[in-house]
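User: Good morning. I'm curious how NAP would be positioned relative to this chain. Could you predict the structure with it bound?
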Amino acid sequence: MKTQAKNYINGKWVPGTLGKIDMINPSYNTKAGEIARSGDQDVDKAVKAARNAFNRVWGKTDAANRGRILYKIANVLEEHLDELSELESADTGKPIKQARTDASLCARYFEFYAGAADKLHGDTIPFMDGYSVYTKRVPLGVTGHIIPWNYPLQMTGRTLAPALAAGNTAVFKPAEDACLAVVRVFELIHEAGFPPGVVNLVTGLGDEAGAALANHPGIDHMAFTGSPEVGKIVMKNSADHIRPVLLELGGKSPQVVFNDADIEAAMPVIVNAIIQNAGQTCSAGSRLVIQEDIHDDVVHELIKRFKKLKTGPADKNPDVGPIITKKQLERVEGFVQRAIDDGAEILAQGDKPDGEGFFFPPMLMGRVNNESFIAQNEVFGPVLTVIPFKDEADAIRIANDVEYGLIAAVWTKDVGKAHRVAEAIDAGQVYINGYGAGGGVELPFGGMKKSGFGREKGFEALYDVTAVKTVIVNHG
Ligand code: NAP
Ligand code: MG
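Assistant: Good morning! Here's the predicted structure, ligand included:
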Protein backbone atom coordinates (compact mmCIF):
# COMPACT_ATOMS: atom_id res chain seq x y z
CA MET A 1 0.00 0.00 0.00
CA LYS A 2 1.52 3.31 -1.10
CA THR A 3 0.52 6.61 0.42
CA GLN A 4 1.07 10.03 -1.14
CA ALA A 5 4.32 11.81 -0.33
CA LYS A 6 2.33 15.04 -0.24
CA ASN A 7 0.69 17.46 2.14
CA TYR A 8 -3.07 17.85 2.37
CA ILE A 9 -3.84 21.57 2.27
CA ASN A 10 -7.19 23.21 1.56
CA GLY A 11 -8.69 19.93 0.33
CA LYS A 12 -5.87 19.20 -2.17
CA TRP A 13 -2.75 17.01 -2.18
CA VAL A 14 0.30 19.18 -2.83
CA PRO A 15 4.07 18.45 -2.74
CA GLY A 16 6.18 19.75 0.13
CA THR A 17 8.42 22.69 -0.78
CA LEU A 18 11.51 21.02 0.72
CA GLY A 19 11.25 17.66 -1.09
CA LYS A 20 10.65 14.23 0.44
CA ILE A 21 11.79 12.08 3.36
CA ASP A 22 12.20 8.29 3.39
CA MET A 23 10.35 6.36 6.08
CA ILE A 24 11.99 3.30 7.62
CA ASN A 25 10.46 -0.04 8.63
CA PRO A 26 12.19 -0.65 11.99
CA SER A 27 11.55 -4.42 11.91
CA TYR A 28 13.88 -4.85 8.91
CA ASN A 29 15.66 -1.50 8.51
CA THR A 30 14.18 -1.15 5.01
CA LYS A 31 12.33 1.69 3.31
CA ALA A 32 8.63 1.75 4.24
CA GLY A 33 7.54 4.72 2.13
CA GLU A 34 8.02 8.46 1.62
CA ILE A 35 6.49 11.60 3.03
CA ALA A 36 6.61 15.26 1.99
CA ARG A 37 9.26 17.47 3.60
CA SER A 38 7.71 20.80 4.45
CA GLY A 39 8.71 24.16 5.82
CA ASP A 40 7.44 27.68 6.54
CA GLN A 41 5.63 28.18 3.22
CA ASP A 42 3.66 24.93 3.41
CA VAL A 43 2.65 25.58 7.02
CA ASP A 44 1.66 29.13 6.21
CA LYS A 45 -0.63 27.97 3.38
CA ALA A 46 -2.18 25.35 5.66
CA VAL A 47 -2.83 27.84 8.47
CA LYS A 48 -4.40 30.32 6.02
CA ALA A 49 -6.61 27.58 4.57
CA ALA A 50 -7.69 26.58 8.08
CA ARG A 51 -8.46 30.20 8.99
CA ASN A 52 -10.52 30.67 5.86
CA ALA A 53 -12.44 27.43 6.45
CA PHE A 54 -13.10 28.44 10.06
CA ASN A 55 -14.40 31.89 9.15
CA ARG A 56 -16.48 30.84 6.15
CA VAL A 57 -17.74 27.34 6.88
CA TRP A 58 -16.80 25.28 9.88
CA GLY A 59 -17.29 27.89 12.58
CA LYS A 60 -20.83 28.33 11.20
CA THR A 61 -21.70 24.66 10.67
CA ASP A 62 -24.38 23.27 13.00
CA ALA A 63 -23.01 21.07 15.73
CA ALA A 64 -25.24 18.20 14.55
CA ASN A 65 -23.84 18.49 11.03
CA ARG A 66 -20.27 18.56 12.32
CA GLY A 67 -21.11 15.37 14.20
CA ARG A 68 -22.53 13.76 11.04
CA ILE A 69 -19.28 14.34 9.12
CA LEU A 70 -17.24 12.96 12.01
CA TYR A 71 -19.46 9.85 11.99
CA LYS A 72 -18.74 9.43 8.28
CA ILE A 73 -15.02 9.56 9.01
CA ALA A 74 -15.38 7.00 11.81
CA ASN A 75 -17.22 4.68 9.42
CA VAL A 76 -14.78 5.05 6.56
CA LEU A 77 -11.85 4.41 8.95
CA GLU A 78 -13.64 1.31 10.29
CA GLU A 79 -13.91 0.01 6.72
CA HIS A 80 -10.15 0.32 6.25
CA LEU A 81 -8.79 -1.16 9.48
CA ASP A 82 -6.75 -3.86 7.71
CA GLU A 83 -4.75 -1.50 5.55
CA LEU A 84 -4.39 1.11 8.30
CA SER A 85 -3.00 -1.49 10.70
CA GLU A 86 -0.59 -2.88 8.10
CA LEU A 87 0.76 0.58 7.37
CA GLU A 88 1.03 1.48 11.06
CA SER A 89 2.76 -1.80 11.87
CA ALA A 90 5.31 -1.50 9.03
CA ASP A 91 6.02 2.15 9.83
CA THR A 92 6.28 1.99 13.64
CA GLY A 93 7.27 -1.66 14.28
CA LYS A 94 4.13 -2.30 16.33
CA PRO A 95 3.01 -5.95 16.39
CA ILE A 96 0.16 -6.15 13.91
CA LYS A 97 -2.36 -6.95 16.67
CA GLN A 98 -1.51 -3.76 18.53
CA ALA A 99 -1.62 -1.76 15.29
CA ARG A 100 -5.14 -3.03 14.69
CA THR A 101 -6.20 -1.93 18.17
CA ASP A 102 -4.74 1.49 17.42
CA ALA A 103 -6.55 1.73 14.07
CA SER A 104 -9.85 0.83 15.78
CA LEU A 105 -9.22 3.44 18.46
CA CYS A 106 -8.54 6.07 15.81
CA ALA A 107 -12.01 5.37 14.38
CA ARG A 108 -13.50 5.23 17.89
CA TYR A 109 -12.24 8.75 18.69
CA PHE A 110 -14.10 10.12 15.67
CA GLU A 111 -17.20 8.14 16.69
CA PHE A 112 -17.10 9.37 20.31
CA TYR A 113 -16.65 13.04 19.38
CA ALA A 114 -19.21 12.75 16.57
CA GLY A 115 -21.74 11.93 19.27
CA ALA A 116 -20.44 14.63 21.59
CA ALA A 117 -20.48 17.47 19.03
CA ASP A 118 -24.09 18.54 19.72
CA LYS A 119 -24.01 17.86 23.46
CA LEU A 120 -21.61 20.57 24.50
CA HIS A 121 -24.08 22.50 26.65
CA GLY A 122 -23.65 25.78 28.47
CA ASP A 123 -25.15 26.95 31.79
CA THR A 124 -27.76 29.44 32.86
CA ILE A 125 -26.62 31.51 35.82
CA PRO A 126 -28.85 33.13 38.47
CA PHE A 127 -28.02 36.85 38.51
CA MET A 128 -29.70 40.14 39.49
CA ASP A 129 -33.42 40.68 39.04
CA GLY A 130 -34.19 41.74 35.46
CA TYR A 131 -31.33 39.80 33.88
CA SER A 132 -30.85 36.44 32.18
CA VAL A 133 -27.35 35.04 31.90
CA TYR A 134 -26.19 32.06 29.90
CA THR A 135 -22.84 30.62 28.88
CA LYS A 136 -21.87 28.85 25.71
CA ARG A 137 -18.73 27.03 24.66
CA VAL A 138 -17.31 28.57 21.51
CA PRO A 139 -14.50 27.18 19.33
CA LEU A 140 -11.10 28.88 19.53
CA GLY A 141 -10.45 28.97 15.78
CA VAL A 142 -7.42 27.33 14.16
CA THR A 143 -5.86 24.56 16.23
CA GLY A 144 -2.29 23.31 15.75
CA HIS A 145 -1.40 19.69 16.50
CA ILE A 146 2.10 18.21 16.84
CA ILE A 147 2.25 14.51 17.68
CA PRO A 148 5.02 11.95 18.28
CA TRP A 149 5.83 8.68 16.50
CA ASN A 150 4.75 6.18 19.15
CA TYR A 151 0.98 6.10 18.50
CA PRO A 152 0.38 7.95 15.23
CA LEU A 153 -3.08 6.53 14.55
CA GLN A 154 -4.40 6.83 18.09
CA MET A 155 -2.98 10.31 18.50
CA THR A 156 -4.56 11.51 15.26
CA GLY A 157 -8.03 10.59 16.48
CA ARG A 158 -7.32 11.72 20.02
CA THR A 159 -6.26 15.24 19.16
CA LEU A 160 -8.13 16.00 15.91
CA ALA A 161 -11.60 14.63 16.64
CA PRO A 162 -12.43 16.81 19.69
CA ALA A 163 -11.00 19.95 18.07
CA LEU A 164 -13.14 19.45 14.95
CA ALA A 165 -16.23 18.38 16.87
CA ALA A 166 -16.10 21.62 18.87
CA GLY A 167 -16.04 23.68 15.66
CA ASN A 168 -12.33 24.42 15.28
CA THR A 169 -10.30 23.84 12.13
CA ALA A 170 -6.89 22.17 12.28
CA VAL A 171 -3.32 21.98 11.00
CA PHE A 172 -1.70 18.70 11.86
CA LYS A 173 2.04 17.84 11.92
CA PRO A 174 2.86 14.19 12.66
CA ALA A 175 6.34 12.87 13.52
CA GLU A 176 9.01 12.36 10.87
CA ASP A 177 9.79 8.87 12.22
CA ALA A 178 6.31 7.42 11.67
CA CYS A 179 3.31 8.86 9.89
CA LEU A 180 2.40 6.76 6.83
CA ALA A 181 -0.87 5.55 8.37
CA VAL A 182 -1.69 9.17 9.27
CA VAL A 183 -1.33 10.15 5.61
CA ARG A 184 -3.75 7.33 4.75
CA VAL A 185 -6.20 8.63 7.39
CA PHE A 186 -6.16 12.01 5.64
CA GLU A 187 -6.81 10.32 2.29
CA LEU A 188 -9.84 8.68 3.87
CA ILE A 189 -10.89 11.94 5.52
CA HIS A 190 -10.81 13.48 2.04
CA GLU A 191 -13.19 10.75 0.82
CA ALA A 192 -15.51 11.39 3.76
CA GLY A 193 -16.00 14.92 2.48
CA PHE A 194 -14.91 17.65 4.89
CA PRO A 195 -15.19 21.17 3.44
CA PRO A 196 -11.72 22.18 2.07
CA GLY A 197 -9.37 23.67 4.66
CA VAL A 198 -11.11 22.26 7.74
CA VAL A 199 -8.30 19.74 8.28
CA ASN A 200 -4.80 20.15 6.88
CA LEU A 201 -1.79 17.84 7.03
CA VAL A 202 1.79 19.08 6.84
CA THR A 203 4.51 16.44 7.20
CA GLY A 204 8.23 16.91 7.74
CA LEU A 205 10.98 17.43 10.26
CA GLY A 206 10.47 18.77 13.75
CA ASP A 207 12.81 21.72 13.37
CA GLU A 208 11.33 22.64 9.96
CA ALA A 209 7.59 21.88 9.67
CA GLY A 210 7.17 21.48 13.46
CA ALA A 211 8.94 24.72 14.32
CA ALA A 212 7.05 26.58 11.57
CA LEU A 213 3.71 25.45 13.03
CA ALA A 214 4.68 26.08 16.67
CA ASN A 215 5.84 29.59 15.68
CA HIS A 216 2.94 30.54 13.43
CA PRO A 217 0.99 33.57 14.67
CA GLY A 218 -2.24 32.30 13.07
CA ILE A 219 -2.74 29.41 15.50
CA ASP A 220 -5.30 29.86 18.31
CA HIS A 221 -4.60 26.67 20.30
CA MET A 222 -1.58 24.41 20.22
CA ALA A 223 -1.64 20.74 21.27
CA PHE A 224 1.73 19.06 21.68
CA THR A 225 2.65 15.52 22.71
CA GLY A 226 6.32 14.55 22.89
CA SER A 227 9.47 15.22 24.87
CA PRO A 228 9.72 17.80 27.68
CA GLU A 229 12.56 19.54 25.78
CA VAL A 230 10.45 20.26 22.69
CA GLY A 231 7.36 20.84 24.85
CA LYS A 232 9.14 23.78 26.49
CA ILE A 233 9.96 25.28 23.07
CA VAL A 234 6.33 24.93 21.95
CA MET A 235 5.15 26.55 25.19
CA LYS A 236 7.55 29.47 24.77
CA ASN A 237 6.28 29.96 21.21
CA SER A 238 2.73 29.96 22.53
CA ALA A 239 3.71 32.57 25.12
CA ASP A 240 5.02 34.78 22.31
CA HIS A 241 1.63 34.62 20.61
CA ILE A 242 -0.44 34.56 23.84
CA ARG A 243 -2.44 31.41 23.11
CA PRO A 244 -3.32 28.31 25.11
CA VAL A 245 -1.18 25.23 24.84
CA LEU A 246 -1.84 21.63 25.84
CA LEU A 247 1.27 19.66 26.73
CA GLU A 248 1.52 15.89 27.15
CA LEU A 249 5.13 15.16 27.96
CA GLY A 250 5.26 11.57 29.10
CA GLY A 251 5.57 9.90 32.48
CA LYS A 252 7.35 7.58 34.83
CA SER A 253 4.27 5.79 36.02
CA PRO A 254 4.29 3.60 39.14
CA GLN A 255 2.41 0.35 39.69
CA VAL A 256 2.11 0.03 43.48
CA VAL A 257 1.54 -3.58 44.55
CA PHE A 258 0.55 -4.30 48.17
CA ASN A 259 1.01 -7.69 49.84
CA ASP A 260 -2.76 -8.32 49.89
CA ALA A 261 -3.14 -7.88 46.10
CA ASP A 262 -4.41 -10.54 43.72
CA ILE A 263 -0.96 -11.24 42.28
CA GLU A 264 -2.25 -13.76 39.72
CA ALA A 265 -4.45 -11.03 38.22
CA ALA A 266 -1.78 -8.34 38.48
CA MET A 267 1.07 -10.25 36.88
CA PRO A 268 0.02 -10.22 33.18
CA VAL A 269 -1.16 -6.62 33.48
CA ILE A 270 2.17 -5.50 34.97
CA VAL A 271 4.08 -7.23 32.15
CA ASN A 272 1.84 -5.85 29.42
CA ALA A 273 2.04 -2.29 30.79
CA ILE A 274 5.78 -2.20 30.07
CA ILE A 275 6.02 -4.31 26.90
CA GLN A 276 3.11 -2.67 25.05
CA ASN A 277 4.56 -0.86 22.04
CA ALA A 278 8.05 -1.98 23.21
CA GLY A 279 7.76 0.37 26.19
CA GLN A 280 7.47 3.41 23.90
CA THR A 281 4.33 4.61 25.63
CA CYS A 282 4.00 7.85 27.60
CA SER A 283 1.85 6.01 30.14
CA ALA A 284 3.98 2.83 30.28
CA GLY A 285 3.95 1.24 33.75
CA SER A 286 7.71 1.58 34.08
CA ARG A 287 8.22 1.52 37.88
CA LEU A 288 7.05 -1.52 39.82
CA VAL A 289 6.80 -0.43 43.47
CA ILE A 290 6.24 -3.57 45.48
CA GLN A 291 5.76 -4.39 49.18
CA GLU A 292 8.96 -5.94 50.50
CA ASP A 293 7.46 -9.14 51.96
CA ILE A 294 6.14 -10.27 48.54
CA HIS A 295 9.04 -8.79 46.57
CA ASP A 296 11.07 -11.97 46.05
CA ASP A 297 8.10 -14.15 45.04
CA VAL A 298 6.78 -11.61 42.55
CA VAL A 299 10.22 -10.97 41.07
CA HIS A 300 10.77 -14.73 40.74
CA GLU A 301 7.53 -15.05 38.75
CA LEU A 302 8.30 -11.95 36.65
CA ILE A 303 11.75 -13.31 35.71
CA LYS A 304 10.07 -16.45 34.32
CA ARG A 305 7.61 -14.36 32.33
CA PHE A 306 10.17 -11.90 30.95
CA LYS A 307 12.42 -14.76 29.74
CA LYS A 308 9.54 -16.24 27.74
CA LEU A 309 8.62 -13.04 25.88
CA LYS A 310 9.26 -13.15 22.13
CA THR A 311 10.80 -10.13 20.44
CA GLY A 312 10.77 -9.92 16.64
CA PRO A 313 9.54 -8.27 13.45
CA ALA A 314 6.13 -6.65 13.78
CA ASP A 315 4.49 -8.59 10.94
CA LYS A 316 5.21 -11.88 12.79
CA ASN A 317 3.03 -10.61 15.67
CA PRO A 318 5.59 -11.04 18.47
CA ASP A 319 5.06 -10.00 22.09
CA VAL A 320 7.47 -7.13 21.50
CA GLY A 321 8.37 -5.40 18.22
CA PRO A 322 11.46 -3.28 17.48
CA ILE A 323 12.30 0.17 18.82
CA ILE A 324 11.31 2.91 16.37
CA THR A 325 14.82 3.97 15.20
CA LYS A 326 18.46 3.06 15.69
CA LYS A 327 18.89 6.34 17.58
CA GLN A 328 16.13 5.48 20.06
CA LEU A 329 17.55 1.94 20.45
CA GLU A 330 20.93 3.42 21.37
CA ARG A 331 19.18 5.74 23.81
CA VAL A 332 17.53 2.77 25.55
CA GLU A 333 20.86 0.89 25.68
CA GLY A 334 22.48 4.01 27.14
CA PHE A 335 19.85 4.13 29.92
CA VAL A 336 20.55 0.50 30.84
CA GLN A 337 24.32 1.03 30.92
CA ARG A 338 23.90 4.08 33.13
CA ALA A 339 21.62 2.09 35.47
CA ILE A 340 24.23 -0.65 35.77
CA ASP A 341 26.88 1.98 36.50
CA ASP A 342 24.53 3.29 39.23
CA GLY A 343 24.39 -0.17 40.86
CA ALA A 344 21.26 -1.71 39.30
CA GLU A 345 21.17 -5.34 38.26
CA ILE A 346 19.65 -7.05 35.20
CA LEU A 347 17.29 -9.69 36.58
CA ALA A 348 15.99 -10.99 33.26
CA GLN A 349 15.89 -10.23 29.56
CA GLY A 350 14.23 -12.04 26.67
CA ASP A 351 16.21 -13.36 23.66
CA LYS A 352 17.39 -10.97 20.97
CA PRO A 353 16.27 -12.05 17.49
CA ASP A 354 18.57 -12.11 14.44
CA GLY A 355 18.12 -9.60 11.65
CA GLU A 356 18.54 -5.91 10.92
CA GLY A 357 15.64 -4.69 13.10
CA PHE A 358 16.20 -2.33 16.03
CA PHE A 359 15.44 -4.93 18.70
CA PHE A 360 15.66 -4.54 22.46
CA PRO A 361 14.15 -7.55 24.29
CA PRO A 362 12.20 -6.62 27.43
CA MET A 363 14.31 -6.28 30.55
CA LEU A 364 13.64 -6.50 34.28
CA MET A 365 16.00 -4.55 36.54
CA GLY A 366 16.45 -4.85 40.30
CA ARG A 367 18.52 -3.12 43.01
CA VAL A 368 17.22 0.17 41.60
CA ASN A 369 17.47 3.24 43.79
CA ASN A 370 14.48 5.54 43.22
CA GLU A 371 16.85 8.51 43.04
CA SER A 372 18.88 6.98 40.21
CA PHE A 373 18.66 8.22 36.62
CA ILE A 374 16.74 5.19 35.34
CA ALA A 375 14.09 5.50 38.06
CA GLN A 376 13.58 9.19 37.40
CA ASN A 377 13.65 9.46 33.60
CA GLU A 378 11.53 8.10 30.79
CA VAL A 379 13.45 5.24 29.11
CA PHE A 380 10.92 4.85 26.29
CA GLY A 381 11.87 1.18 25.97
CA PRO A 382 10.69 -2.11 27.54
CA VAL A 383 12.65 -1.79 30.80
CA LEU A 384 10.82 -2.41 34.09
CA THR A 385 12.54 -1.37 37.30
CA VAL A 386 11.55 -2.97 40.60
CA ILE A 387 11.66 -0.97 43.85
CA PRO A 388 10.55 -2.44 47.23
CA PHE A 389 8.58 -0.50 49.88
CA LYS A 390 7.87 -1.07 53.57
CA ASP A 391 4.40 0.33 54.27
CA GLU A 392 1.66 2.53 52.80
CA ALA A 393 3.41 5.81 53.58
CA ASP A 394 6.63 4.53 52.02
CA ALA A 395 4.73 3.40 48.89
CA ILE A 396 3.17 6.83 48.44
CA ARG A 397 6.48 8.58 49.00
CA ILE A 398 8.25 6.47 46.35
CA ALA A 399 5.34 6.70 43.88
CA ASN A 400 5.39 10.51 44.09
CA ASP A 401 9.15 10.90 44.19
CA VAL A 402 9.49 11.70 40.46
CA GLU A 403 8.99 14.87 38.43
CA TYR A 404 6.32 13.24 36.26
CA GLY A 405 2.67 12.56 37.17
CA LEU A 406 0.82 10.95 34.28
CA ILE A 407 -0.79 7.70 35.41
CA ALA A 408 -0.47 5.16 38.24
CA ALA A 409 -1.92 1.87 39.47
CA VAL A 410 -2.68 0.59 42.96
CA TRP A 411 -3.04 -3.16 43.52
CA THR A 412 -4.76 -4.17 46.79
CA LYS A 413 -7.93 -5.92 47.99
CA ASP A 414 -8.36 -3.38 50.82
CA VAL A 415 -10.93 -0.86 49.53
CA GLY A 416 -10.00 1.88 51.99
CA LYS A 417 -6.30 1.58 51.26
CA ALA A 418 -6.96 1.59 47.50
CA HIS A 419 -8.82 4.91 47.70
CA ARG A 420 -6.36 6.48 50.14
CA VAL A 421 -3.38 5.68 47.95
CA ALA A 422 -5.19 6.70 44.75
CA GLU A 423 -5.94 10.04 46.39
CA ALA A 424 -2.36 10.52 47.55
CA ILE A 425 -0.60 9.77 44.27
CA ASP A 426 -0.05 12.78 41.99
CA ALA A 427 -1.22 11.54 38.60
CA GLY A 428 -3.82 12.48 36.01
CA GLN A 429 -5.23 8.94 36.02
CA VAL A 430 -5.07 6.28 38.74
CA TYR A 431 -6.16 2.70 38.14
CA ILE A 432 -7.16 0.45 41.02
CA ASN A 433 -6.51 -3.25 40.35
CA GLY A 434 -5.90 -2.68 36.67
CA TYR A 435 -3.88 -0.66 34.19
CA GLY A 436 -4.78 0.76 30.81
CA ALA A 437 -2.04 2.55 28.94
CA GLY A 438 -3.44 4.32 25.92
CA GLY A 439 -7.04 3.13 25.80
CA GLY A 440 -10.19 4.60 27.25
CA VAL A 441 -11.41 7.16 24.74
CA GLU A 442 -14.06 8.21 27.30
CA LEU A 443 -11.59 8.78 30.15
CA PRO A 444 -10.03 12.23 30.66
CA PHE A 445 -6.27 11.89 30.34
CA GLY A 446 -3.32 14.21 30.93
CA GLY A 447 -0.53 15.08 33.26
CA MET A 448 0.24 16.59 36.61
CA LYS A 449 3.66 18.03 37.48
CA LYS A 450 6.16 17.80 34.57
CA SER A 451 3.94 15.44 32.60
CA GLY A 452 2.19 18.55 31.32
CA PHE A 453 -1.27 20.04 31.54
CA GLY A 454 -4.56 20.18 29.72
CA ARG A 455 -6.80 17.17 29.27
CA GLU A 456 -7.42 14.97 26.27
CA LYS A 457 -10.06 12.24 25.84
CA GLY A 458 -13.59 12.27 27.21
CA PHE A 459 -15.64 15.45 27.43
CA GLU A 460 -12.73 17.28 29.06
CA ALA A 461 -10.96 17.43 25.69
CA LEU A 462 -13.80 19.57 24.33
CA TYR A 463 -13.35 22.07 27.17
CA ASP A 464 -9.67 22.42 26.30
CA VAL A 465 -10.36 23.52 22.72
CA THR A 466 -13.23 25.90 23.48
CA ALA A 467 -13.68 29.15 25.40
CA VAL A 468 -16.63 29.98 27.66
CA LYS A 469 -18.59 32.97 26.45
CA THR A 470 -20.95 34.50 29.03
CA VAL A 471 -23.93 36.44 27.65
CA ILE A 472 -25.62 38.87 30.06
CA VAL A 473 -29.09 39.97 28.95
CA ASN A 474 -30.72 43.04 30.50
CA HIS A 475 -34.51 42.57 30.16
CA GLY A 476 -34.90 46.37 29.95
P1 NAP B 1 10.11 15.09 20.13
O1 NAP B 1 11.32 15.56 19.41
O2 NAP B 1 9.61 15.85 21.29
O3 NAP B 1 8.97 14.94 19.01
C1 NAP B 1 7.59 15.17 19.19
C2 NAP B 1 7.03 15.97 18.02
O4 NAP B 1 7.57 17.29 18.03
C3 NAP B 1 7.39 15.39 16.66
O5 NAP B 1 6.35 15.60 15.74
C4 NAP B 1 8.60 16.23 16.30
O6 NAP B 1 8.89 16.21 14.94
C5 NAP B 1 8.17 17.58 16.78
N1 NAP B 1 9.26 18.54 16.98
C6 NAP B 1 10.58 18.31 17.16
N2 NAP B 1 11.25 19.46 17.30
C7 NAP B 1 10.35 20.47 17.20
C8 NAP B 1 10.42 21.90 17.28
N3 NAP B 1 11.57 22.52 17.47
N4 NAP B 1 9.27 22.60 17.17
C9 NAP B 1 8.09 21.98 16.99
N5 NAP B 1 7.97 20.63 16.89
C10 NAP B 1 9.09 19.89 17.00
O7 NAP B 1 10.32 13.62 20.61
P2 NAP B 1 11.26 12.53 19.91
O8 NAP B 1 12.57 13.11 19.51
O9 NAP B 1 10.45 11.95 18.83
O10 NAP B 1 11.48 11.53 21.12
C11 NAP B 1 12.42 11.84 22.15
C12 NAP B 1 11.92 11.42 23.51
O11 NAP B 1 10.70 12.10 23.82
C13 NAP B 1 11.55 9.96 23.67
O12 NAP B 1 12.64 9.14 23.91
C14 NAP B 1 10.60 10.01 24.84
O13 NAP B 1 11.28 10.02 26.06
C15 NAP B 1 9.88 11.31 24.64
N6 NAP B 1 8.59 11.10 23.96
C16 NAP B 1 7.46 11.21 24.67
C17 NAP B 1 6.24 10.97 24.06
C18 NAP B 1 4.94 11.07 24.78
O14 NAP B 1 3.99 10.39 24.41
N7 NAP B 1 4.81 11.95 25.75
C19 NAP B 1 6.19 10.60 22.73
C20 NAP B 1 7.37 10.52 22.01
C21 NAP B 1 8.56 10.77 22.64
P3 NAP B 1 9.98 15.14 14.43
O15 NAP B 1 9.52 13.80 14.86
O16 NAP B 1 9.92 15.33 12.99
O17 NAP B 1 11.27 15.51 15.06
MG1 MG C 1 12.55 14.24 17.08
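DSSP finds 15 helices and 21 strands in the chain. The chain has two domains: 7-249+452-474, 254-440.
Let me know if you'd like a different ligand tried.
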